[in-house]
Amino acid sequence: MKTFSFFRRGWHLTLLSALLLFVFLIPLLWMVSTALKSTSEIYSYPPKLISLSPDWTIWSQILTDPQISRFFVNSLVVSFGTTFTTLCLSIPCAYGLAHLPVKGKTLILGVSLSTLVFPAIMTATPLYIVFGKLGMLNTYPALILADTAISLPFAIVMLRPSFRSVPKELAEAAQIDGCGRWRAFWLIMLPLVVPGILTVGVFTFLAGWGDLLMSLTLTTDDAMMPVTAGLFKYIGNNVSQWNRVMALATLQSIPPLLLFMVAQRYVVSGLTEAAVKQ
Amino acid sequence: MLATEVTPAARRPKRARRTSVRLADAGNYLFVLPAVFFLAAFLIYPILYNIRLSFIDVKANELLSGSAAWVGLRNYQEIFQDPLARLAALNTFIFTIVSLIFQIVISMALALLYNQEFPGSRFMRSMYIAGWAIPVLVSGTMFKWLFDGDSGLVNYALKLIGICPNPLFWTADPNLALISTIIANIWLGIPFNLALIYASLQTIPRELYEAASIDGAKAWSKFFFITLPLIKPALLSTLILGMIYTIKQFELIWTMTQGGPLNSSQVVSTAAYTYVFSQFEFGHGAALLNLTALFLFGATLLYLRSIRREGAT
Q1: Set of chain A residues whose Cβ sits within 8 Å of the Cβ of B45
Q2: How far is CA A41 from CA A63, A244, B140, in A?
Q3: What is the pLDDT along chain A (278 residues), one digit of tens a residue?
């Protein structure tokens, strides 16, 4: 009787799923586990699954290293800057493409869609050359502009359907009542597409935070490097110190993982919608 | 009766309204134009610049002075003969095909599991997204460490189950470097593929399965005659998106091997980056990227046309 309800409620599937999830998460768990080991423990054989005496000195060194905090500040500035710029440009544009009588809609949408297909490296070389000529390498604006250029078409393509799902008569009615075009957009339409905006915001932030290509290409100065380029360089300088490397990798995974936990609903729905719409 | 009522006096406000409509139209463009200008300056212009780069002979000093000779298709001819570009094309092909096959099969199995109801199903399914949320660079670093020759977990596991007693130097071995990046890339793609396939499974009405059960259908025949045909369109779009994403993959490989050792794991994107930033062959890098973009663009167009045709019939 007991086993019957065990299978009927699906607990055997829970066990199977937990096992599979564990296997999938091994790389992540191993990263955290390594980050807590002392240097001698990393090379012990057989490898210890969990350190019995976590080596916190590495963490205190990393957390107090001014260079590493600088990496994090840079990443925060670039990610928030990219998210802000992307949202400011994409929200009105998506609204215009969804509801307003604008010529060239198909062209704008078509170009946005097709640039999604192009490799981001295509823009890396030209931007490196142009920003180099303008003396903008190793600056926040260069990184923010480059990251926004990558995120913007995606944001427009994602947000347009959100606006389309809101009847445009709402904004028109407000305008007849004497509300200005921008006020109607701001007060009536915007609040109704908040979930879509959050999804795009989370995606853009994650893309900005995780970007390595533009960071490697447009920054050479340690003081301006985001965490990704910082970690990349750190691996080169600390080849055999995997506990330090993993500590820095863990540290830079915390903001995206926190964001993912808080905004999980938007990420999951966004992931699926992104594909359906494209 | 209506016609008689339209007097010139009645027309005037109508005309005034028409011009105000035109003004309003201009106002509408204010919503769209900032983004359009931004894309033109920071996306379209760089892409066109890249196309121009592929037709000129650029060395770093000429790049600054702006005097570079037009060489027509020479860059394209040269990369067709260059072993690096050829190897990169072949590796990209292998990398993409093998990654996609395993990603789809594994994600399909997981999606079928999570499509069933059991305690904790929802929570555990969402945990996979963690692998997608962290930076690709971090995933690459994790796998580089897992594949470490001396102290890597993978070698330890292989020895433990007795498959391979001698340590393999995965990312440092020309025969294994590409394989290790493929394995990491399969892992990387599972969250996305799982989310998409799961979403398409959710659209299948449960009644279909119940009806099939009543008719005595087995699990396998249900899968092949109900599930697979119904999610085929979604599966195809997942495949196309995965293909685009995989062919574009740069950061994972750059983190794990930088295309090495001995170029054994170069794909088109890493090879283009090598051309530009270590060999300063801007034209070669640009030509290789343009060909890749052209391929991706063509494949996407073909796919879009095929769904449109299917939708029409």
Answers
A1: 126
A2: 21, 13, 22
A3: 556 677 777 888 999 999 999 999 999 999 999 999 888 888 887 888 887 778 888 899 889 999 999 999 999 999 999 999 999 999 999 999 988 888 888 888 888 888 888 888 899 989 998 999 899 999 999 999 999 999 999 999 889 988 888 887 877 787 777 777 788 888 888 888 888 899 899 999 999 999 999 999 999 998 999 999 999 988 887 777 888 899 999 999 999 999 988 887 777 776 666 555 54
In chain A, which residues have their Cβ closer than 8 Å to the Cβ of B159? none
Number of domains in chain B: 1
In a domain, A71, yes or no: yes
The CATH number covering residue B126 comes to 1.10.3720.10
- Whether residues A252 and B135 touch (CB distance < 8 A) is answered with yes
Q: What is the C-alpha to C-alpha distance for residues B196 and A38, in angstroms, rounded to an integer?
A: 41
In chain B, which residues have their Cβ closer than 8 Å to the Cβ of A228?
135, 137
Q: B31 and A212: CB-CB below 8 Å?
A: no
H or E element in which residue B143 lies: helix B136-146
Q: Which residues of A touch B36 (CB under 8 A)?
A: 93, 108
Are B36 and A235 within 8 A, CB to CB? no
Cβ of residue A82 closer than 8 Å to a chain B Cβ: no
Nearest residue to B259 via CA among B188, B180, B190, B147: B180
Where in the sequence is the domain holding A10, given as residue range(s)? 1-35
Q: Which residues in chain B are contacts of A259 at CB distance < 8 A?
A: 133
Q: Are residues A111 and A80 in the same domain?
A: yes
CA atoms within 13 A on the CB side of B183: 16
Rg (CA), chain B: 27
- Pairwise CB contact (< 8 Å): B44 & A115: yes
Q: Does A202 touch chain B (CB under 8 A)?
A: no
CB contact under 8 A, B32 and A92: yes
Q: Are B145 and A38 in contact (CB under 8 A)?
A: no
With respect to residue B158, please indicate whether it lies within any of the assigned structural domains. yes
In angstroms, what separates the C-alpha of A253 from chain B's closest C-alpha?
5
Query: Helix, strand, or coil here: B70?
Result: strand
Residue type, B309: R
Contact status, residue B300 vs residue B210, Cβ threshold 8 Å: no
